[in-house]
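Good morning C.,

I know you're traveling, so I'll keep this short. The sequence:
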Amino acid sequence: MDTTMIIVAGIVGVALGLIIAKFMEKKNASKILANAKREAASIVKEATAEGESLKKDKIFQAKEKFLELKAEHEKVIVAKDKKIAEIEKRAKDKEAQVNGELSKNKKLTEALETKAKDYDYRMEILEKKQAEVEKLHKSQVKQLEIISGLPAEDAKSQLIESLRDDARSDAMSYVQNTLEEAKLTAQQEAKKVIINTIQRIGTEEAIENCVSVFNLESDDIKGRIIGREGRNIRALESATGVEIIVDDTPEAIILSCFDSVRREIARLSLHKLVTDGRIHPARIEEVVQKTTKQIEEEIIEVGKRTIIDLGIHGLHPELIKMVGRMKYRSSYGQNLLQHSREVAKLCGVMAAELGLNPKLAKRAGLLHDIGKVPESETEMPHAILGMEWAEKYGEKPDVCNAIGAHHDEVEMKSLIAPIVQVCDAISGARPGARRQVLDSYIQRLKDLEDIAFGFNGVKKAYAIQAGRELRVIVESERVNDDKASELSFEISQKIQTDMTYPGQVKVTVIRETRSVNIAK
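The tokens, ready to paste straight into the viewer:
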């Protein structure tokens, strides 16, 4: 009973609590709702106010943007209107210019039409006159044929031949005058340089040959040199490679050999043997060996002394030795060392006159013939061999080219090359410098005269001054003065084309007229 009462009381309490809580919640909810309505009204009011403000701002900004766009649009319209006005102005100017050109063209067309009509009229008149001239020309030609007794074609041929001869004579005279003028002007300085160079050089004439004479105090020594059964002379010839000729020549023995070095070794060995008095095969071999060594040392000394005299430095020892060997070599009777020294001096002087390097020119001039002193026989041209040796021993390209090109075996690539060639010709071609074989000398002179006899009208021809001048005497009836000048030119060209010769050949054509009468 009590428990039930407690439960009922509890239930009633819970229900009362719920009712009270519900009431309190409703009261709070109404209060919150009222506050919310007030806040909402306030927010709505504020939002309305801000909306009005924003609306006014947007309207104001839109009006400003509209004004700006309107101003820019007006500017664009004004610019376009300005451009349109300019275009219209240019179009009007162009139209006016075109109208002016059209009017000018119209006037020119009218003038051209007038000139064309005038031209046609004049052409008709000219054709008529030309027909009249041709008619008159034919009648005059017929009259000339009747008067001269020759057809027109024959007369024309004679006239053309006459004019051709006159033109040829005038041309030859002009060519001759031009050549003389060129020689006086273009070669004047060259002659001056060459003459000044030659005047500074004094050289000896050729005296070298293939034999040497060893003089003896008495003919009794000849027997000692020959030895028992000729053993001494055989030993000497075997050791030196020189042929020893013992003949009836008093107090002299002849040493014959193409190699002057071996000939000199034999001469000095004989001198030592004769002076010492001991002449037998063993002693001969000993003396020849010592003499050979002495000559080798002398060759080197001669080479050194030569390059010092010429002021040449830095030459390879082998080239120095070759320069020394030139002392014992000859070319057409001209001592090779003397010739090379002469060419070196000439090259130095000529290079200095022309503003080139004289030391380099001297070097090339001294070495230009080193190919002529080989230890053994070779078929290679001495200029090419010398160039190869110079390249092998470190000479400069200009020097090597000058050595190889001084006989035109290779192309000239420097200014020193023609100088060496010219100086070599000056040294070798001067009178007395070289000996020539008599037969070849006579044949060359005969060939010169035969060339002159190959031309019509030549009566006599003489080669004089060792082939330096050719004098041609012509028949005065067949060759006139103008033809003589032409003949001189043609002969000189023929000699230049067909012959090989040192220096120059002067061709002189002589035409002489003689009138002879006898008074009785």
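Safe travels,
E.
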